[in-house]
Structure prediction request, 355 residues.
Amino acid sequence: MTVTIAVDAMGGDHGISTTVPAAIDLLKEHPNCRILLVGQLEAIHHALKKIPNDLRDHVTVVEAAEIVAMDDSVEVALRKKKNSSMRIAIELVKDGQADAIVSAGNTGALMAISRYLLKTLEGIDRPAISTRMPNQKGTGTTVLDLGANSDCEAFHLLQFAQMADVMVRVIDGKERPLIGLLNIGEEVIKGNEVVKQAGILLRNSTLNFHGNVEGNDIFKGTTDVVVCDGFVGNVALKTSEGLASMISQMIKEEFGRSLLTKFLSFLALPILLRFRKRVDHRRYNGAMLLGLRGLVIKSHGSADRYAFYMALTRAYEAANNHMVEKIAKAFDQIEKQKVDEASSTPPISSTNAIS
Prediction:
């Protein structure tokens, strides 16, 4: 199977200097992949000068005259920049010319345009942003929603869990992913009413539900999936990124205080490099917009070549394993089960009805 990925080559803080080399790296790793680079022709062709000859046939350049800036409003991106590299890349997925789209551009714009053009799958009310965060086990914990839905109802959290269940089974090969509900305590009586009701729905579902988990469980790897609303999820994500950056900076400062500490840093270099690799957020780059009729991957705006390559890899794995189709099939089965349960429930007769 050939996997075709549309790349918003102009998006993100670094644009073509990052997106094009990362795309070439992906092609070297996956010969059955095809890349559609969307953006300004001259700039992209210039960046492709160093591409190996055997990979040239795997790359197609698609022209887009406009760029969605990181500070553009959703209205500007959606209504006024209809020839942007982001929008055209999404349209390639909508038209069936690409299996996935990857962008490091404006998150709000990507979400709005994707939802407008691709629509949500049958049975899904809202799409959710999902990504993996590092944990002590080294496997990563899948967390959603990370900002698409600030306010959620209980059944939205159930749907997020159902989508994540399929995603982890497809991407990680886990037959029964363990799912946790983010709360302020493990006890079922804790949390607001939405979280309490979500807990009831999850316990009554067919999912492998662990129960309530707290913020530190994300990094312990207590469950494979942690579900929350977008407000809480985005705060948790940005807090973890800020903490990792602070710790890294503190270690660098302490080892650089004197000649002695610099010498000790040289001795500790192998340990420091292993530590850096374990907490490197670039390994987990590539958030999925789950619930749409197409595969959309959001890369971090400041992603470097390696980080964007990891986002492309996630897109490739998801597309190669038909993740969108499997989520759609799972929700078809859920809707069918609801209908079957409703039709099998006997009606209340007038003779035994409670007056």
